[in-house]
Amino acid sequence: MASSLATSPAAAPAGVRKSRRVLPGFKLTLGFTLFYLSVIVLIPLSGLFAKTLTMDWRHFVDAVSSPRVMASYRLTFGASFLAALINTFFGLIIAWILVRYDFFGKKLIDSLVDLPFALPTAVAGISLTALLASNGWVGSLLEPYGIALAFNPNGVVIALTFIGLPFVVRTVQPVLEDCEQELEEAAMCLGASAWQTFSHVVFPTIAPALLTGFAMAFARGVGEYGSVIFIAGNMPMVSEITPLVIIGKLEQYDYAGATAVASVLLMASFVLLLVINGLQSWQRQRLGAQT
Amino acid sequence: MSSMAHTGRRSPARAEPSAVRWVLLSLALGFIFLFLLLPLAAVFVEAFRKGWGGYLAAFAEPEALSAIQLTLITAVIAVPCNLVFGVAAAWAIAKFDFPGKSALTTLIDLPFSVSPVVAGLVYVLMFGAHGWFGPWLMAHDIKIIFALPGMVLATTFVTFPFVARELLPLMQSQGTDEEQASMVLGASGWQTFWHVTLPNIRWGLLYGVILCNARAMGEFGAVSVVSGHIRGQTNTVPLHIEILYNEYQSVAAFAVATLLTLLALVTLVVKSLVEWQFERQQQAAKRLSPERPSHNEER
Question: Is B118 a member of any domain?
Fold first, then answer.
């Protein structure tokens, strides 16, 4: 089948193109890619928007802006923002020590950072809950001080912090590795302090990566479901996240309501995806301009 | 150049005061201890709270076995589909130029940013009783939602980009020189792919598949929406864990969870091995042809 496609370069336009089209399989692989993408992702997603369009406007607005749904937006976006902020701070420090310092067990820690990518969210959820519940290892230490971290919005922030942990580390780490030593040495020679060198030389270089990592952690947090529902307590108006609102509506056979809220969440995902893409191309430009 | 900078010689410009180093190290390690090591340890401690007997009892349940079976079946269908797609997409995008290439790359990443719950919902809207194809499916007695096909579809959606994401930067950095040489020397397209491209990408491919598999077996939100939670029939391992946990069978829930945790740990080990292999290849390539630049700024 590939040999029949190998004859297609003859039909390709002459010049630069031609040399690239020596390789076969372009039509086959691109065709399959587009077909599979459409069947699995694009058609189902557009089905959701088509369903939203069949609703009348009043119903849609009612569904997406009822007090309970609004409270869930505040929690979902607020907790994701906080968790992403925590991850940006600690992620930068973790990336820093992994790149700049040598210490015992560094390789192990480096691979462990990806744990939240690999660990199923439900397992993370029950494990964090077991730790933070009032009889857990951490929860029992904090209970005498009146601090409760599980079954309230604090739990949501903690679960989302766990889920988003690798993003900032993994975006900042490679940039920090490629940071040019000469620039920092020049700054030191010109009399800058270590802090000045960091804030004026290193930080501007890693800022785009840091922002990208923040946006990725935030985006992941907004959609997260599995790890949160165990630890949140799921009280309407207080600790109920938006994905759970969608599930709740589905369980009551309110398909229109579920679809409406889902379309809001989906739009937020699209916007975040565009923002992340923009940040990444900014980062590439910055790196390209430097080297 | 990067490998020189972060190992070996440390310039005075990069030596912070030792107090700063100490604070940064303890902040980072403390955070990792609290957020990664403690949850990991908790899974095993909770699972063995009643000793080996209690641990093994969780797997004697027929429901646990059927959940494991269903999870395996789902992964065995979803992962190869995404593997073939990932290779095809990476070949088309990395080896050829065409308009709309970056848009296509973005669309492939799309499932990463969609909430798993929304991913499950879109299939309910397509194939559910009230969905676009619902009445037709009902008339022909085909069940997709609350049955295996729906769970496979939802899992495929959620793990859609993994293999493509691993292969794309890898194949882009390798360019097309070797494949072109092989074609010029008279190899067929398949021979070129099989003997030239595949050996070059095998480690990235392996990692992509392993990660895809870990996510496929652990997916919760999307599968939860389409499964209908029919015990012994449409419960995967993560859903089984949820049911046990909500029924206060904590030991059993964590015992089953250790399976998925071990899978996650294996995934991390494979990832480290793959990166180690890749670095070795990179260094070997550098030693062989110093004039050939290597482009891999993104992973």
Answer: yes
Q: Do residue A40 and residue B92 have CB atoms under 8 angstroms apart?
A: no
Number of structural domains found in chain B? 2
Domain that holds residue B24: 1-47
Best mutation target among A115, A137, A281 (most B Cβ atoms within 10 Å) is A115
Contact in structure between A279 and A263 (CB atoms under 8 Å) = no
Domain assignment present for residue B64? The answer is yes
The answer to whether residue B295 sits within a structural domain is: no
Same domain, A155 and A186: yes
User: Residue B126 corresponds to which tokens in the numbers above?
Assistant: 């397509």
* Cα separation, A38 vs B160, whole angstroms: 12
> pLDDT tens for residues B34-89?
999 999 999 999 999 999 998 999 998 899 999 999 999 999 999 999 999 999 99
Task: State CA B57 to chain mean position distance.
Answer: 30
- A96: distance to nearest CA of chain B, Å? 8
DSSP state of B9: -
Q: How many Cβ pairs within 8 Å bridge chains A and B?
A: 317
Q: Where do the H-state alpha helices sit in B37-100?
A: 38-47, 51-60, 62-95
Are A179 and B5 in contact (CB < 8 Å)?
yes
Are B31 and B147 in the same domain?
Answer: no
User: What ipTM was reported for this prediction?
Assistant: 0.86
Closest CA to B46 of A76, A226, A261, A132: A132
Determine which helix (DSSP H) or strand (DSSP E) holds A212, and give its type and residue range.
helix A203-223
**This prediction's pTM:** 0.88
* Contact between chains at B180 and A120 (C-beta distance less than 8 A): no
CA B295 from centroid of its chain's CA atoms:
24
- 3 state SS of B55: helix
Measure CA of the first residue to CA of the last residue in chain A; give whole Å.
44
Q: Which of B2, B11, B125 to mutate to test the interface with A (most CBs of A within 10 A)?
A: B125
Q: Dump pLDDT digits (tens) for A42-80.
A: 999 999 999 998 888 998 999 999 999 999 999 999 999
Task: Show contacts of B178-182: CB within 8 Å, 24+ apart.
Answer: B179/A23, B179/B95, B180/A19, B180/A22, B180/A23
Cβ contacts of residue A17 below 8 Å, gap of 6+?
A: B97
CB B126 within 8 A of CB B133: yes
Least Cα distance to A122 among B261, B49, B68, B64 occurs for B261
- The radius of gyration of chain A from alpha carbons, rounded to an integer in Å, stands at 24
